[in-house]
Give the backbone structure.
Amino acid sequence: MKIAIPPVEIPPNGRPHPPAEDVLIDNFGRRITYLRLSVTDRCNLRCVYCMPEQGVPFLSREQILSFEEMERILRLLAGMGVNKVRITGGEPFVRKGLMDFLRRVHAIEGVQAIHITTNGVLTAPHVPELKRLGVKSINLSIDTLDRERFFQMTRRDELERVLACFHTILAHDIPLKINMVLMEGQNAEDIIPMSRLSRDYPVEVRYIEEMPFNGADGGRRKLFWNHKRILETLRNEYPGLYPLESEANSTSMNFRVPGHKGDLGIIAGFSRTFCGSCNRIRVTARGTLQTCLYGEGVLDLKSLLRGGATDEEIKNMFRQCTGQRFKDGWEAEKQRSQPFDVSQSMALIGG
Ligand code: SAM
Ligand code: SF4
């Protein structure tokens, strides 16, 4: 099969960044430009789709990457064309020193866009600084606007603080997306009330299919709220709903309701409709490189860094690993040595 190599962008100063031979392109011709970085596996909520009530066996400080190690990884990847980074977790804001780290990430040459995914419990006081750092967007997880159901789903009574964070982000004019994971028997009745956030505010509400990463039994094998059912429910409520053109590499199918200030999105994370254009890699809190959400770690970056590998050696490993990517999440799942029944929590992988 002939692989089409995407062109390397030449910035206005005429100097391509990075040199063509350094650009990360996978074995299917997909250029890797996006890193999802899980900065901690710890969290102050216990969402039922992400971890059991008692939490997961959290890693010790030694077992997770230090911020210096993450910075080095990011610097190397930025030199290979990764220009977008999403800071996630666990809950990123429970890790001490996060804001210092973000300031350093902001200064890395080649990193053009920092995005953050957060549950919003501790985030509000940092929003002004996030704005100053030019954070491109924040994804805020809210599964319901009902206090009782919020408690049932997250096992913590924090809806008020999360909504305060929602308003603080809006007040600072940072593009805001709301992530809602749909679970039958938990928050299905919130589909339409949540959509009204996009009626009243310039936000994108994204309905996410539940994926098998709950840190316990892997979750439901059969998905009730798949993307088709979600869309049907929205169409019934909003007959005028129409699809929007999605950005290249987007994981969400996007829609608009005439008269709404924001948009609606559906992320078929279980059905995996978006793998064909996947441009992302992940570094887990444990310091493992994952080239597919549904696969297993392909490189123990932490040992490599701590074993004294040179920059060039690490870059070579990035090239090797991205040169052996799976076509899609289905193929990656088939190759797993362990089934999802003993799956990790999404908090470790970062979503
Ligand atoms: N703690 C932050 C938060 O909740 O936004 C960031 C980490 S969380 C793992 C990242 C995203 O993954 C959240 O939007 C969360 O809703 C989503 N998520 C977690 N477990 C999931 C699952 N089993 N299926 C689908 N999405 C999941
Ligand atoms: Fe924590 Fe986010 Fe997982 Fe919820 S989804 S338990 S907020 S890491």
Notes: The two ends are 32 Å apart (CA to CA). The pocket of iron/sulfur cluster (ligand 2) is lined by residues 43, 45-47, 50-51, 89-91, 119, 141, 346-347 (CB under 6 Å). The chain has eleven helices and twelve strands. The longest helix spans residues 159-171.
